[in-house]
């Protein structure tokens, strides 16, 4: 396994629609395993293939993200979804301090659906369908958005987004 480079906003690969995976071959399995390792190393609770420069409809996520420091010692296993889609959604919650490995040094509350039903394939190519709620529902919405070139900063107010962009511009100029 290998750690992959995480691409940052505004790299083009993050802003375009990713292509469906046609065949789950060895290269896809390797990519998924590398994505899982990269996610835990970062550390993060989810990662989408465009974030590592691959415009493919693949996400990995931590199915039981730590909610306390004690939980952080639990063994970490990631799950993968190929060609995931949200087929139903309901309710409304505000994610507190949502962040993204591709949008460094920023976090913001985002309005999200409270519950979603997700459909996709696992690494064996088996069809999966499950309900997610709370933090897992937020992770699903955030990661599947990445596959459509949508970042969480696209889902906040224009005022906050412009504040972030100004901050980013300053940082890029000072480098
Ligand atoms: Ni993200």
Calculate Rg over CA atoms: 16 Å
SSE class: alpha+beta
- Distance between the first and last residues' Cα: 32 Å
Helix content: 25-40%
Major sheet summary line: 5 strands, antiparallel
Secondary-structure arrangement, i.e. CATH architecture of the domain at 12-90 and 113-151: Alpha-Beta Complex
How many strands appear in the DSSP assignment? 7
Give the amount of beta strand, in percent: 25-35%
Mean pLDDT: 94
Number of helices: 3
Q: So what's the overall shape?
A: globular
CATH level-4 homologous superfamily of the domain at 12-90 and 113-151: Peptide deformylase
Catalogue the ligands.
Answer: nickel (II) ion
- H/E series: HEEEEEEEHH
| Side-by-side strand order of the widest sheet | 1-2-3-6-7
CATH domain fold name of the domain at 12-90 and 113-151: Peptide Deformylase
CATH class of the domain at 12-90 and 113-151: Alpha Beta
Low-confidence segments, ≥5 residues, pLDDT <50?
none
Account of the protein in words:
This protein is an alpha+beta fold and 175 residues long. The chain has a domain at 12-90 and 113-151: Alpha-Beta Complex (Peptide Deformylase), CATH 3.90.45.10. Helices cover 26% and strands 29% of the residues. It has helices at 26-41, 135-146, 158-174, and strands at 46-48, 58-61, 79-90, 93-100, 103-112, 115-121, 127-133. The strands form 2 sheets. The protein has a 5-stranded antiparallel beta sheet. Strands 4-5 form a two-stranded antiparallel ribbon. The radius of gyration is 16 Å and the shape is globular. The model has no long low-confidence stretch (mean pLDDT 94). The structure holds nickel (II) ion (NI).
